[in-house]
Amino acid sequence: MISKELVQSRDSRTILINNMSKEDQEYLREKYQLTTEMLIYAKDLRERARVEYDQPTQSWIMIYNAVAENFSRPVSPIAIVIRDKNVFVFTRTETQYIQNYFSKIDNTKLHIPLTHQTIWEMVFNALYQITTDFFDQIEELNAQRQELETEIRNSPNNDHIFELADLTKAMVYMLTSANSNTMAIESFKLYNRRLGILDLSQLEYERLDDVLIEARQAQQMAQLTSDITNKVADTYNNLIGNTTNNVMRFLTIYSIVLTIPTIVTGFYGMNVDLPLADSPFSWLFVVVIMVGIIWFMWWQMKRHHFF
Predict the structure, then answer these.
(1) Mean pLDDT for the chain?
(2) CATH of 2-241, one of 3.40.50.2300, 3.30.460.20, 3.50.50.60, 3.40.630.30
């Protein structure tokens, strides 16, 4: 659905499309001559973050990862197409909030209304805000990790395994997306430097550098949080392993202790002549033998640090 068509200047528009339908695709093809390839890129949920320049149509295609709201994954790609001084922003339900970054005053910089910005200033400002959204999401995941770590220290249980798995999976998505965004911005700068297509102003270059700096910072934060989460998961796995070892050690000792009386009483249960078998104190003799052997086994295990 085409949410808005904002007039930026006499020959420039910003078209915001959310959950693009077939009717939207036909409209964009006919009125703005967007190619089928562009629309496929914009609709693909699995598209990786990157920047491409389409020479025949002289259009820029930007795929960028954004934080997703109420979605099975913490991130989701959006698409930005710049063609003939028009900017097309493709979002989905989980990333629809990003349309506000293209339709409201830029709050991150000089509070310049969007109608007074160039196309690339507007795009870079929006990318800046999208990138800084990663910080809040990473901090939230980091807080969940700290809370989970405290619970594991106090009373570990099986539910923590699933929580750790979900947290680790979320961090993989965040880290991969942050890496892809950084590579996309770096490739855009390299692409433009090689081809010399865009004649960006100093302010536009500064905005682009700001985006790259924030993307790298998000990348580092995601990497750090991911590493710590993996360490916590490894520690919890070691804790489970130690618990299993302790249980097996206890069962081994218990089985050895129970085996000794069985062996001794088995001997004295045979129909053969045994020492003191006819004595009225034979039962006491059997008990002494069992206790003696048990004590000897306990002493040997203690001496070899078995427990």
Answers:
(1) 83
(2) 3.30.460.20
